[in-house]
Amino acid sequence: MMIYKLLYTLVLATITNTWINAQIKTENVQNKMEFRNEDSVARRGPISIVRGMIQDRKGNIWIASFQGVFKYDGKAFVNITGKVSSARFFSILEDRNGNFWFGSIGSGVYFYDGNSFRNLTIKDGLLNNGVTCIYEDRAGDVWFGVSGGASRYDGKSFRNYVIEGNTMHEDHSGKVFPNRAPYEVNAITEDKKGRFWLATRGGTFTYDGKEFSVVSQSGKLFKNVRSLIEDTKGRIWLGGNDGLWRYEGGNFTQVSNAFTGCVYEDRQGNLWTSSGTDSPQEYALSRYSAKTLSARTISSPKVMAIAKIVFAILEAKGGVIWFSTFKGVHKLDGKKATYADGEAFETFPKKKWPF
Predict the structure, then answer these.
(1) How many beta carbons lie within 10 A of that of residue 10, not counting itself?
(2) DSSP letters of 259-303?
């Protein structure tokens, strides 16, 4: 009997030691993986969805990602919001005073003056805590596109504008609006005449300071417009489910019927877009020449095919084009794309994303 007990004890001890050693090895591997991930983030930046990028007046690149807001000084990436919030960040702005605004999904907007943060939410008068875009107008007011409409902030208080069906109006009730698809505001811009354009998952609106008007072409509304900008020539560009459209001289012209998710003008006046292709599993990063942007028919040379949608495009100082996807940020040198650390831009899995 004693022999059986001794054998049982030895077997149990062996199993226990084996399990402990396996746990130690697993923890060591995990620690090494975490270290490599941190090192990768420092060199490569966020490796998750990146929805917004800007370059500040000092040349630093700021990135709004689902891992936080990152600052890149040309050498390394630093997570600015890592110790402040675990929110997914969607939008970013540097205002005329050099302050930064970070829009999040669910946690409102964060104001950052370079030293400290201030979080503005529905408790402060924001219409909704899901902030999808940020824009500063000529008067210095900051607009926040949110789920359900837009909030306009003058530094002291908010004015809120809500979407109801195919109409938009100022709201004076002070009530909180829940997340309401398809009324997320994707883009806001003020044109040279002082008129505001607001693109949403629903319709697209203009605002003259008094009234909102729905934007349409031959009776058809511009719905699910993802990107809206005014270029240096005063042309308005709308990109979305119905393709790429140009508004010039009071007239709309359809430039492309392919889904267009992002529109960006570089310093030379060329127009960069991300769009769908004939293949449902492929997207294209394209560049329209500045010389042809007012022509009736514009050819769009495809710079490169990408198996994932491009969310944001940025021309950094020196003319380097940055773009972002589900897998972080990338740089384009000619027709070769790399990560920020110089590693090759791998072929992403061919998958049709629900977007």
Answers:
(1) 10
(2) -EEEEEE-TTS-EEEEEE-SSTT-EEEEEE-GGGTTSSS----EE
Q: Show the tokens assigned to 32.
A: 């090494």
340 forms bridges with which residues in the sheet?
Answer: none
The pair phi, psi for residue 319, each rounded to 5°, is 85, 5
Q: Where does the chain have alpha helices with state H? A: 2-44
SS3 122: helix
C-alpha distances (whole Å) from 354 to each of 281, 309, 324 are: 11, 11, 17
Please state the domain extents for the chain: 2-339
Record the tokens describing residue 127, joined without a space.
């219409």
Are the CB atoms for 248 and 294 separated by under 8 Å?
yes
**What letter represents residue 107's amino acid?**
S
Span 103-145, pLDDT tens digits: 999 999 999 999 999 999 999 999 999 999 999 999 999 999 9
pTM of the full predicted structure? Answer: 0.84
Nearest to 197 by CA among 245, 208, 209, 205: 205
Question: What CATH class has 2-339?
Answer: mainly beta
The encoded tokens of residue 64 equal 């709004």
